[in-house]
Amino acid sequence: MRWCNLQGKRVLHPPAWIGVVGGGQLGRMLAMEAKRMGYSVVVLDPTENSPAGQVADFQIVAPFSDKTALRKLAEQSDVITYEFEHIDAEALHELEIENHTVIPSSKTLKIIKDKYLQKMTLYNANLPVPPFCKIESKEDLVKRIGEFGLPVVLKARQGGYDGKGNFVIKSESDVDLAYEKLAGKDLMLEKYIHFVKELSILVARNFEGEVKFYPVVENIHEENILRITKVPAQIDSSIKSKVEQIARKVVEVLNDCGIFCIELFLDSNGQVFINEIAPRPHNSGHYTIEACVTSQFEQLVRILTGMPLGSTQLISPCVMVNILGNDEVFGKYTVEGLEKILSMEKVYLHLYGKSTTSRLRKLGHITVLDENVEKAERKALETLSHLKIKPL
């Protein structure tokens, strides 16, 4: 089955095939929504019985760099998407040349996976970003620190996630260690923003250019890992409007369709700066499964198949907390304490089916709905206190 025209629109009807590059938790939750809506799903991931592979119709077990496997995925799919950025944009472009549909496009992926190119694209569009520059050598780094002042963030241009590939330089004594840690990578430097809140917003954009915003949320990170998402963010209406204006312009500049998460910093002067963009569903959007009329994953299925965008209305204030691996358990594990958690009302547990755990590995999440964010946060933290990761 391929695209068919319906009143001038390109649409895919069930049981059309959706191909997903990546078999992690984002692919898993996308596959679950696609299956609920009657679509077929094929996943490419190097790990057998991956979280997404467990619920998809079929998994191709191969490295992401395997172009033969990627072409096999394309041949079995009516449309292709990806659940993370660290894949070969040129390989996807080759598939597009052969008339395979990739959403978001390889052009967008190429821009976003290179943090410097991403920032340049935003800067050239007059969007608010922290001061930044390329770094060519240690001497260049020292010179630029003198211009920017401390603190600054040294970043690998490609490949980093959850804080990996970043180093916050707080003093001159950090320079050697930072440069050594990221040696051999293409680098950029960014002025550190003294933020009062970390915000993010999900934006949906379809083939026709229609745009819908999800609520602006507040994120709390520890050790560069998202711990808590509070919905809606406790910000005034002017900040909310500013974030939405920025988000609209970002997707207009990218001129693509899909789900995009825009992460931002809010400083004490009320200024908002773009941190990063993810061209896919995002950890900070997991709350949408229970707390919005249309989840981020259903929305992406709608976009992939040419169906109408769904409502992004928030049903209830909520808080999402990540379930992370601890310092004591490595390898196979079990999760205890579910009886107490499942006895609590408006508490929704998601475990990702990962076969092994390690420190700070994302194993699942819990979303709690309540009449306000404060009550939801208290209950969410209580649920985490009952949950125990134990060796199997």
Automatic annotation (TrEMBL):
<dbReference type="InterPro" id="IPR054350">
    <property type="entry name" value="PurT/PurK_preATP-grasp"/>
</dbReference>
<dbReference type="InterPro" id="IPR003135">
    <property type="entry name" value="ATP-grasp_carboxylate-amine"/>
</dbReference>
<dbReference type="Pfam" id="PF17769">
    <property type="entry name" value="PurK_C"/>
</dbReference>
<feature type="binding site">
    <location>
        <position position="155"/>
    </location>
    <ligand>
        <name>ATP</name>
    </ligand>
</feature>
<dbReference type="GO" id="GO:0046872">
    <property type="term" value="F:metal ion binding"/>
</dbReference>
<dbReference type="InterPro" id="IPR013815">
    <property type="entry name" value="ATP_grasp_subdomain_1"/>
</dbReference>
<keyword id="KW-0436">Ligase</keyword>
<feature type="binding site">
    <location>
        <position position="221"/>
    </location>
    <ligand>
        <name>ATP</name>
    </ligand>
</feature>
<feature type="binding site">
    <location>
        <begin position="190"/>
        <end position="193"/>
    </location>
    <ligand>
        <name>ATP</name>
    </ligand>
</feature>
<comment type="similarity">
    <text>Belongs to the PurK/PurT family.</text>
</comment>
<comment type="function">
    <text>Catalyzes the ATP-dependent conversion of 5-aminoimidazole ribonucleotide (AIR) and HCO(3)(-) to N5-carboxyaminoimidazole ribonucleotide (N5-CAIR).</text>
</comment>
<dbReference type="InterPro" id="IPR011761">
    <property type="entry name" value="ATP-grasp"/>
</dbReference>
<dbReference type="InterPro" id="IPR016185">
    <property type="entry name" value="PreATP-grasp_dom_sf"/>
</dbReference>
<keyword id="KW-0658">Purine biosynthesis</keyword>
<dbReference type="InterPro" id="IPR040686">
    <property type="entry name" value="PurK_C"/>
</dbReference>
<dbReference type="GO" id="GO:0005524">
    <property type="term" value="F:ATP binding"/>
</dbReference>
<keyword id="KW-0456">Lyase</keyword>
<dbReference type="GO" id="GO:0034028">
    <property type="term" value="F:5-(carboxyamino)imidazole ribonucleotide synthase activity"/>
</dbReference>
<comment type="subunit">
    <text>Homodimer.</text>
</comment>
<dbReference type="Pfam" id="PF22660">
    <property type="entry name" value="RS_preATP-grasp-like"/>
</dbReference>
<protein>
    <recommendedName>
        <fullName>N5-carboxyaminoimidazole ribonucleotide synthase</fullName>
        <ecNumber>6.3.4.18</ecNumber>
    </recommendedName>
</protein>
<feature type="binding site">
    <location>
        <position position="115"/>
    </location>
    <ligand>
        <name>ATP</name>
    </ligand>
</feature>
<keyword id="KW-0210">Decarboxylase</keyword>
<feature type="binding site">
    <location>
        <position position="198"/>
    </location>
    <ligand>
        <name>ATP</name>
    </ligand>
</feature>
<dbReference type="GO" id="GO:0006189">
    <property type="term" value="P:'de novo' IMP biosynthetic process"/>
</dbReference>
<dbReference type="Pfam" id="PF02222">
    <property type="entry name" value="ATP-grasp"/>
</dbReference>
<keyword id="KW-0547">Nucleotide-binding</keyword>
<feature type="binding site">
    <location>
        <begin position="275"/>
        <end position="276"/>
    </location>
    <ligand>
        <name>ATP</name>
    </ligand>
</feature>
<keyword id="KW-0067">ATP-binding</keyword>
<dbReference type="InterPro" id="IPR005875">
    <property type="entry name" value="PurK"/>
</dbReference>
<dbReference type="GO" id="GO:0005829">
    <property type="term" value="C:cytosol"/>
</dbReference>
<feature type="domain" description="ATP-grasp">
    <location>
        <begin position="119"/>
        <end position="305"/>
    </location>
</feature>
<dbReference type="InterPro" id="IPR011054">
    <property type="entry name" value="Rudment_hybrid_motif"/>
</dbReference>
<comment type="function">
    <text>Catalyzes the ATP-dependent conversion of 5-aminoimidazole ribonucleotide (AIR) and HCO(3)- to N5-carboxyaminoimidazole ribonucleotide (N5-CAIR).</text>
</comment>
<dbReference type="GO" id="GO:0004638">
    <property type="term" value="F:phosphoribosylaminoimidazole carboxylase activity"/>
</dbReference>
<comment type="pathway">
    <text>Purine metabolism; IMP biosynthesis via de novo pathway; 5-amino-1-(5-phospho-D-ribosyl)imidazole-4-carboxylate from 5-amino-1-(5-phospho-D-ribosyl)imidazole (N5-CAIR route): step 1/2.</text>
</comment>
